[in-house]
């Protein structure tokens, strides 16, 4: 039996691909964004949802003192470190994987269940990995860009990566213990906390972007390419692109 | 005596900016960053979102180390060569205003994060280099903040700022290209100018 989340998502992806393929995006002329029509519609949906989510995140950001927010981020970050370790292993980065496992062990114990990031202070750097990056490292190309409701921007590759991430996500799996309410609180808290960390970026994007959708899409694509290369993507601007 | 003092003082003013410019690129990035952050740390207005003050700070402390013309050329791409000198000048002016404001806006969200400077690999003969820094933020992964610099005459100038892999300059390329194919270089100038006016009208 397929887990409900995954099957829901794959049917969502299927429906979206159908809508997009059936001519909803005939006006798109950007080769890297063939489904621009669909994506812009979903972007608008998310902007609408954000009218509700953002105030909640702002409330949280104002009410919660910094140490509380740090503890919340650390707690969820610690859980994710296990998945980071697996992905580093899948990408053949054994040293990084060992360091991630070290982080998980140290922070879960000395760091009191992940509340404090003692491991970083001990010099074990936090890495950022997910299954989309692993696929990228394996040479899977990005595929068309999508803007999904709630989830936000993802390339096709990263959409599949995200499905695998969610399937393996210990926080989503809390429902297996039978405590659905706890799972919902955890997923909700993590989402609001994440939204709160993005608040400072809102103002910058609002003023920097001519077209918010374009700006976010292009930034997302650059960001993910850099992530696949673990920040070592060479800064290259070819001469024909950079006339003096 | 008095004139000697004022002459010395004048010399100091002239020499002060030159001092940082003669530094190696990584040392220069570090000095300018720390200078700016020291001011922001003590300025409650900037911390509470006073963009005007942050812009003044960016203009005096940061802009001298940026090559805005190169930045504009990068964002515009191939079409840059087709622009007249007058168009280039106006494009650079408008884009500069936009970039300085974006940078200043980012300054107002500063909350005592620490910046770590990574050792940069470069040979003495290099004329281009990327200086890597990281902004440490409690509870989250550090944010990569890189500066691409080139040597011009004797001094180094920043021509790109890359935040978490996202170039603040080339991120505009597609948007600019689209506008130029719709309404030409003049259309692009108008678009950036309108944006600047709109932001200026919205916030003082």
Describe the structure.
The complex is a heterodimer of chains A (244) and B (204). Chain A is mostly helical and 244 residues long. Chain A contains ten helices and two strands. Chain A has helices at residues 4-24, 36-63, 66-90, 94-109, 118-121, 131-137, 156-168, 180-197, 199-208, 212-228, and strands at residues 145-148, 152-155. A two-stranded antiparallel ribbon of chain A has the order 1-2. The longest helix of chain A is centred in the N-terminal third of the chain and has 28 residues, at 36-63. Chain B is of the alpha+beta class and 204 residues long. Chain B contains seven helices and five strands. The longest helix of chain B is centred in the last third of the chain and has 30 residues, at 173-202. Chain B starts with a helix and ends with a helix. Classes of the chains: A mainly alpha (244), B alpha+beta (204). At the A-B interface, helix 3, helix 9 and helix 10 of A face helix 5, helix 6, strand 3, strand 5 and helix 7 of B.
Q: In terms of topology, how is this protein built?
A:
The complex is a heterodimer of chains A (244) and B (204).
Chain A: H1 4-24, H2 36-63, H3 66-90, H4 94-109, H5 118-121, H6 131-137, E1 145-148, E2 152-155, H7 156-168, H8 180-197, H9 199-208, H10 212-228
Antiparallel strand pairs in A: 1-2
Helix pairs in contact in A: 1-7, 2-8, 3-4, 3-8, 6-7, 6-10
Chain B: H1 2-21, H2 25-42, H3 44-47, H4 51-62, H5 68-76, H6 85-108, E1 114-117, E2 128-137, E3 140-152, E4 155-163, E5 166-167, H7 173-202
Antiparallel strand pairs in B: 1-2, 2-3, 3-4, 4-5
Percent helix range of chain A = 55-70%
Average pLDDT for all residues of chain B: 87
Helix fraction of chain B?
A: 55-70%
Number of strands of chain A: 2
> What fraction of residues of chain B sit in β-strands?
15-25%
Large-scale geometry of chain B:
globular
- Radius of gyration of chain B using CA atoms only: 18 Å
Q: What characteristics describe this protein?
A:
heterodimer; A: 244 residues; mainly alpha; two-stranded antiparallel ribbon; 65% helix; 3% strand; disordered C terminus; B: 204 residues; alpha+beta; 5-stranded antiparallel beta sheet; 7 helices; 57% helix; globular
């Amino acid at each position: 039996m397929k887990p409900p989340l995954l099957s829901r998502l794959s049917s969502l992806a299927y429906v979206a691909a159908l809508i997009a393929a059936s001519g909803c995006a005939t006006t798109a002329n950007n080769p890297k964004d063939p489904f621009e029509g669909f994506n812009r519609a979903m972007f608008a949906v998310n902007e609408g949802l954000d009218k509700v989510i953002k105030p909640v995140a702002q409330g949280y950001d104002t009410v919660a003192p910094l140490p509380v927010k740090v503890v919340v981020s650390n707690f969820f970050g610690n859980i994710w470190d296990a998945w980071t370790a697996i992905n580093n292993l899948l990408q053949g980065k054994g040293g990084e994987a060992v360091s991630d496992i070290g982080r998980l062990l140290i922070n879960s114990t000395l760091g009191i269940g992940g509340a404090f990031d003692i491991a970083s202070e001990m010099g074990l750097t936090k890495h950022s990995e997910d299954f989309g990056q692993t696929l990228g490292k394996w040479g899977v190309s990005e595929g068309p860009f999508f803007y999904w409701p709630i989830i936000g921007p993802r390339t096709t590759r990263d959409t599949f990566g995200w499905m695998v991430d969610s399937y393996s996500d210990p926080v989503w799996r809390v429902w297996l213990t039978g405590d659905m309410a706890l799972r919902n609180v955890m997923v909700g808290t993590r989402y609001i906390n994440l939204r709160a960390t993005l608040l400072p970026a809102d103002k910058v994007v609002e003023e920097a972007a001519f077209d918010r959708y374009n700006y976010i899409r292009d930034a997302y694509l650059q960001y993910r390419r850099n992530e696949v290369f673990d920040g070592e993507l060479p800064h290259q601007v070819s001469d024909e692109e950079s006339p003096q | 005596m008095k004139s000697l003092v004022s002459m010395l003082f004048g010399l100091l003013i002239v020499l002060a900016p030159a001092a940082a410019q003669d530094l190696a690129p990584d040392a220069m990035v570090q000095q300018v960053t720390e200078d700016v952050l020291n001011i922001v740390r003590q300025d409650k207005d900037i911390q509470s979102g006073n963009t005007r003050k942050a812009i003044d700070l960016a203009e005096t402390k940061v802009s001298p180390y940026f090559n805005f013309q190169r930045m504009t050329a990068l964002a515009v791409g191939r079409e840059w060569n087709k622009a007249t000198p007058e168009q280039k000048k106006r494009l650079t002016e408008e884009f500069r205003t936009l970039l300085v404001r974006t940078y200043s806006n980012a300054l107002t969200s500063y909350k005592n994060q620490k910046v770590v400077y990574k050792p940069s690999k470069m040979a003495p003969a290099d004329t281009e280099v990327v200086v890597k820094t990281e902004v440490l933020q409690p509870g989250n992964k550090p944010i990569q903040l890189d500066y691409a610099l080139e040597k011009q005459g004797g001094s180094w100038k920043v021509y790109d700022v890359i935040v978490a892999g996202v170039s603040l300059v080339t991120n505009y390329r597609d948007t600019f290209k689209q506008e130029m194919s719709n309404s030409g270089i003049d259309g692009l100038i108008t678009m950036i100018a309108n944006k600047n006016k709109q932001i200026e009208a919205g916030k003082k």
